[in-house]
Protein 1
Amino acid sequence: MAKRLFVKTYGCQMNVYDSARMADVLAPLGYASAESAEDADMVILNTCHIREKAAEKVFSELGRMRKLQTAKAEAGSRMILAVAGCVAQAEGAEILRRAPFVDIVLGPQTYHRLPEMVAQAARAGGAVLDTEFPPEPKFDFLPESRAEGTSAFLSVQEGCDKFCTFCVVPYTRGAEYSRPAAAVLAEARALASQGVRELTLLGQNVNGWRHDDGWTLGRLIREVAAIDGIERIRYTTSHPRDMDDELIAAHAELPELMPFLHLPVQSGSDRILQAMNRGHDRDTYLRLTEKLKAAQPDLALSSDFITGFPGETDQDFADTMALIREVGFVQTYSFKYSPRPGTPAALMPDQVPEKVKEERLAQVQALLLEQTMAFNQSCVGREMKVLLDRPGRHAGQLVGRSPYMQPVHVKAAAPLIGTVARLRIVKVHPNSLEAVTA
Ligand code: SAH
Ligand code: SF4
Ligand code: F3S
């Protein structure tokens, strides 16, 4: 009988990719995807540990899952409950202590072993915990990716050696690892042959990707761009320290490489950047963005910011606001600093009061909203290539994404789904752009 799997994903795009791959791993065991946890024989919570709130969500969701599990048991069937991802990696034992009804706890580096874990859990006899960093990279054991739709993620790099003082990722994901180019290209070809037109190359430090022969990410992107069917390429998340000339040149030379780059800077103050151990200062970042814009004049930048890092003064924060204006970011993700267990910043003196963190966050977000709206407005009248990937809400309408990830809707015929169309932007709506065929 067909079994049903429901995966709930928290956190970053790497987790989205991992969730899809876990479903791929379990498909040969007969697991098809379920619409909701209520319909599932197995539920995986793929978790994120980046901020306190994210981690706490998992424990409240586990409470809800327990009720479903009990209801299933009373009806004479069983629901296997697994916790995967970064909370599992960081707090595996704690999860089993606080939620002993969990059947499987697995880290981001062991999910190729899920079939064995499921078999073990099915034999009952207590929970299975596998949060090792096994010597064999999981990618060597995964089945072929199954594509859904025309845009897909592809992990090329994992882990982080940067150790920013606020961040848990180096502890939850382990050391930097680059997948071999041949494996990446084979997966890209397989996805293209299933109809994928846009690939987003993923890594916690994606531009830290290195190949034994000295290739860097710019070269890998060139090879991906040469694959038949791949029309658009993105990559995320990059670190300013790993942005090399080959990658910058790729922005100048490859029409497939989208002119939109997420390049987190976190703060505009040199003092804070140093305390964060970012390994670059404000000026280096500014010069880097200038170089990128010189290579690709259409480039738009996005970033992440943390407000209220320990020791952040009004002046430091003013430097951040000034940097946001100077670079002209068109999008950002911003967060209040959240002290994480085991990270150096959590123990630093001069922790900033919650209220100050919140006020500064609100200011960053208000400024960014202004800049995003101004950018959207500047798109009116421009021609853009839009990957139309689904029907819109209204009849005869299709929706897709601009090169800058803006949702765009247009009156167009259904056969255009899955194609890149040249459109002219005519109007800005609160959450989307309206276009006509150019
Ligand atoms: N590898 C990426 C981002 C990883 S985490 C990079 O280096 O930029 C995604 C974002 O979460 C970070 O860019 C940072 O802005 C935010 N973040 C990480 N740890 C945080 C913490 N302790 N408190 C608040 N925000 C945090
Ligand atoms: Fe975290 Fe810094 Fe590594 Fe990004 S570079 S994952 S912020 S430690
Ligand atoms: Fe979260 Fe882990 Fe990604 S902590 S942001 S899911 S790498």
Note: The mean pLDDT is 95.
Protein 2
Amino acid sequence: MNYSPDIFLNNLAQTTDTPYLITVEKAEGVYLYAPDGKRYIDMISGIGVSNIGHRHPKVVEAIKQQLDRHLHVMVYGEFIQHTPNALAQKLTSLLPAALNCCYFVNSGTEANEGALKLAKRYTGRMEIISCKKSYHGSTHGSLSVSGNEVKKQAFRPLLPDVRFIEFNNADDLNLITTETACVIMETIQGDAGVRIPGKAYMKALRKRCNETGTLLILDEIQCGMGRTGTLFAFEQFNIIPDILTIGKAFGGGLPIGAFIADKKKMQCLTHNPPLGHITTFGGNPVCCASALATLTVIEEENLLATVEAKGKLLESLLTHPAIKEIRRIGLMFAIDFDSAERVNAIVEEAKTQGVICYWFLSHPNSFRIAPPLTITNEQIEESCRVMLKAIDNS
Ligand code: PMP
């Protein structure tokens, strides 16, 4: 085994000077194991990915079966393959009728890139509206519509004609006009520190988009797949997006994303020009097998039914005078403190004590918790004991 920190730090590109640096030998359920046998409870699900836990046996089995049939055989969109077909059938059966056509891609950011292209192409308009403090990915298009100015500054020029409105502020909806191709919005803002919009706001947003012929793209890459207690967060707001983007937990641990729309809209990428969005690996059959098994597990294990109760339990146990605020929907939490230094100290101390919690990209005063939905009450109690101790010691 090669667990050399030297190789990791020098021969693998680094994204920060302070990587989290635990060494992983295996992962199972809510646990990660280091080669020395140390066990960690993963309270962040690999950042919103392992919603059904690590290496769920049904997912591993589905992947193995696909490995025995075939791996990649052709670029996206040309050959009929059982597994992508079965996944598209299953996923659309779980979505409103208007979201009936899936384009499978490789990541969250690519799902958003595809969605933005589709909106421009369908409406013939250029302007895109996004939200302040949003995060939609790290490639040029997704970065252009993300709110974090510090992250964007060094990479300009980015996409032109992008305007930002304040999330959950109804007055700003007037900035959506007949010039606007699309609004792209996280249904629940994740990296801004779990921001939950009001129902009336979401209804007004949908109405304004309808009035102006603007497509509504809801990014559920982080908040989808049961995280908030419903399979998709938009279900809780009684609205339906024109385009839905998903990724992360969708693949059950393998890389896959999707943008999903009505077939009539999606057709725009088929004509003038044809091949309006193309991808070699999108809809990779092994990733599709993993995603299909993940959806089946969520359903068969009735995981959505217990999300709210587990979220409530976790919230009630995390009581400490140093906590300024907790924002929560389902099992998606931001825990606010008075400083980023305090948060850093807590995250480091919890790691030492065997619990993985983590920071947010754009909200340094909070740490995040988003455990696998399969976590048990006992595991919640154990992790809360450790996190409270970490807060005490920080
Ligand atoms: N949208 C949201 C809401 C996200 O949280 C993320 C990832 N944190 C992305 C898009 C980008 O996904 P990926 O990293 O798979 O490109």
Note: Residues 5-55+304-393 form a domain with the Aspartate Aminotransferase, domain 1 fold (CATH 3.90.1150.10).
